[in-house]
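Researcher: Please predict.
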Amino acid sequence: MRSRAEALEAEGRRRLQEAEERLRAEREELRAERERLKALGEELRAERERLKEEREELRREAERLSKRGEALDTRALKLDALEEALAGREEALRAREALLEEKEREIAERLHQVAGLSPEEARRLILEKLDRELEEEKAQRVRAALERARLEAKREAQKILAQAMQRQASETAAQLAVSVVPIPSDAMKGRIIGREGRNIRTFEALTGVDLIIDDTPEAVLLSSFNPIRREIARMALEELLKDGRIHPSRIEEVVEKAKQEMKTFIYERGEEGALEAGVVGLKPGLIQLLGRLHFRSSYGQNVLKHSIQVAHLAGIMAAELGLDAAMARRAGLLHDIGKSVDREVEGSHVEIGIALARRFGEPPEVVDAIAHHHDPENAETLYAVLVAAADALSAARPGARRESLEEYLQRLEALERIALSFPGVETAFAVQAGREVRVIVKPDKITDARPPCSPGRSRAASSGR
């Protein structure tokens, strides 16, 4: 019995424990469900608030649309009123046009009766008058437009050129054909001449320079139009005077040495010129030719210095215009390269320069600048135009070149002759050193609507008549 009672008691405790565990599990489920319901309630409250805000926004939007609709209605009413007013004005204008047409017909009939002209003749006369008036107005408008474009282009060009000129300056060189070499004493003149003149004959034959020995105290003269030969002769003579040994074999040795030194000197001048102009990649032969320009002058202006200045000016203007400044400097430096050998090679310095540039593989822009730096109108690239402008700036700068009075007068007379060659020109005057030509025309032949044509066109027109 006791064991049975214990078994029943154990069974009751087990069932009680299971019931407590089920109760505990159900309590946990209820707690989780309560938490879930609480979170769901929070979500519902947030959704309710959001819906409330959207409802409020929709209400405000509806009010705004309602106000806008009222404004549109008001505007539509105004537009309707304007359309009615415009329709009335259009009707009045049509009536006025009809009245004007009627008056025009009456005036035309009266004119026809008074003038005795048919409508076709009157129309032709009116059209001819209109054509003349339109032609005059067109000429005035074209002239005004050209003047505005000319002023704007001139202003921009002056600004670029002024900026370029302000940043550049070069020295001038005198064009001489004689060099003076000082000697220690007049007794040295006899040694220079040598026995029966053999020393001076050898010296002149080897150098190609005339050695002039006259009454000038303590000095002899070297005369030659070739500045390189004259410089070689000067170097050789100074070396002979310093050494004191003057005889034909020694003269030959010293002259040959001077020629080699001159080649080195010329190459160094070419390198310095290219470096100063900011041009790189020149071939050695071209640098040698460039250095020869150190001994070349034009109107008293050193051609190498002139070429360097043209390179700087062209580079500055190219940079201002957004072009390749390095290419412009290269074209400016080499534009007169033909002058380096124009005394030895047949042809103009332009033709020689083109041949040299092509021989040394220069770019087409450089060749075009060399070919057209005196006639930029026929140029194929803008670099030739820039080089032509820079060349004119460097050459026309006050003090850059020397010109004889005879050449100056001939140039002014040539400018006046060109102006007088145009038909309708009565007289012309070249002023401001040839930089301006003032022209007086015949008013019965030239007007603003009828500008003068070129002499060639005038002759062709007269022959056609």
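Model: The first strand starts at residue 178 and ends at 182.
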